[in-house]
Amino acid sequence: MSTHATHLRGTSHRGYLELPWGQVHFRRSGDTAGPSLLLVHQSPLSSATYEPAMAELAAHGLDTVAVDIPGFGMSDAAPEPWSIPRYASALWQIADALGLGEVHLLGQHTGAVLAAEATLQQRDRVRSLVFQGIPLYSDEERAEKAARYAPGYTPALDGSHLRVVWDRIRWLYPTISAESASRQVAEYLGVGPDYGVAYRAVFAHTTDTAALAGVPTLLLHGGDDVLDRMNDVVTAAFPDAPLVRIDGGTDFVAEEKPREFADAVAAHVLAHTGRADEPGFSPLYTATVEVTGGRAGRARSTTGSLDVPLSRPAERGKDSAGTDPEELFAAGYAACFGSALGVAARRRRVSAGPVTVTAAVTLGTLPGGAYGIAVRLSVSAPECPQDTLEELVRLTHSLCPYSHAVRGNIEVVTETHGGG
User: Fold this and answer.
1) C or N: which end of the chain has fewer Cβ atoms within 10 Å?
2) How far is CA 295 from CA 280, 312, 365, in A?
């Protein structure tokens, strides 16, 4: 594992905010003009969890901020134990101090509960949510955990308390690396013997999941996350939220598989940024095409550049001069995707060489007599190594507006044909 994957410092910008209860430590990466993504870690750890993914998120054009919640990491503790609503209120004070307006919130475990409550407090500022494992405990589970879950440790001159912390971390996460576990020991020690203060706030709190209906939400975590067991409960609570499990990832999937993590997060964030019916959308260009006669009519653009006859697929012969909506959509998607891939290559600082994108759009029937379409994109770049091209295509899907428009609505299959 690379050094930065478990390092408490890392390469992102770090700074402090002065707030009424003390200083708050944060990490920031990316373009401050981009969509704001606020990351809230699990307890009793810190924003260092997200350090390996910060540069990957920045490559997607996101203004990413990971904060150490009060009392954890390098942030000062609150003067008294806080409730989840108080932590959530503090999160908005932090966002205000950072100059953030509307944000996308990602929270893990304790951080997910905090992000949910923050959304309920200022829903108009939250563009979307990502829950990286949200604990939706029953009343019985909360009572049991409140009684015994985080017993703390007593510092001892023989260092035996270090073994207590180490054994707890290995019990929770038996498959993580020694480097990752070592970093967590440092974070536990930084919090102090009573590292369960935020846990107790979670166990005393009930998340009003019904009140979050309508907020675009993604459920995302490693396949071996300790809260993967709660998928049935969580998906029932958020029936409209897609569930993405990253195979081979634990609770620390952001450090284990930073690129896959960032690609999934960015795809969700960008899909819910700059919509035409929401504040923040900045029009760049409007194309207007008038069609008369439906599929057997004619399409004319107001600029006059497009003026073509349309014909029904079943009526088209070998020499037919007409086109159809599927061909027009395929042309638009392929052209846009090719250009977006160029943007992705520049962000990754690589050269893809000549690129050809072929879009095949299929019209078909759905149960009940409705119609639907499916898309197959074939991306060919013979001068680009195959693994590099695959990475660029994943990033391109998070940049291309056509991919945003159809994501979750129709099937899109992508093939890549690189060199080497």
Assistant:
1) C
2) 35, 5, 17
**Kind and range of the H or E element at 184?**
helix 178-191
SS3 category, 33: coil
In the sheet with 298-301, reading across from the earlier edge strand, the strands are 289-292, 298-301, 307-309
Helix (H) or strand (E) holding 221: strand 217-222
With beta carbons less than 8 A apart as the criterion, state whether 25 and 47 touch: yes
Alpha helices in 12-109 (DSSP H): 51-59, 84-97
Residue type for 366, please? L
Alpha-carbon radius of gyration of the chain: 25
The pLDDT tens digits of the residues spanning 115-153 come to 999 999 999 999 999 999 999 999 999 999 999 899 999
DSSP state string for 228-274: GGGHHHHHHHSTTS-EEEETT--TTHHHHSHHHHHHHHHHHHHHTSS
Beta carbons within 8 Å of 302's beta carbon, 6+ residues apart: 288, 289, 290
Give the list of residues 6+ apart from residue 110 with CB closer than 8 angstroms, or none: 41, 42, 43, 69, 135, 198, 199, 201, 202
Which DSSP helix (H) or strand (E) runs through 142? Answer: helix 139-148
How far is C-alpha 67 from the geometric centre of its chain's CA atoms? 16
Tokens encoding 294: 């439906």
Cα atoms found within 13 Å of the Cα of residue 325, Cβ hemisphere only: 14
pLDDT tens figures, 289-346:
888 888 888 888 887 788 888 888 766 666 667 888 889 999 999 999 999 898 888 8
In contact, 354 and 384? CB cutoff 8 Å = no
Q: For residue 314, what are its two tokens? A: 């079943």
Burial 223-260 (b: 16+ CB within 10 A, else e): ebbbbbebeebbeebbeebeebebeebbbbbbbbbbeb
**Whether the Cβ atoms of residue 243 and residue 235 lie closer than 8 Å to each other:** yes
DSSP string, 298-367: EEEETTSS-EEEB--GGG--TT---B-HHHHHHHHHHHHHHHHHHHHHHHHT----S-EEEEEEEEEE-T
Of 88, 141, 80, 78, the closest CA to residue 110 belongs to 88
Which of 123, 145, 279, 278 is closest to 204 using CA atoms?
145
Which pTM does this prediction carry?
Answer: 0.71
DSSP state of 156: -
Sequence-distant (6+) residues with CB within 8 A of 315 are: 296
Task: Round to whole Å and give the CA distance between 258 and 252.
Answer: 9
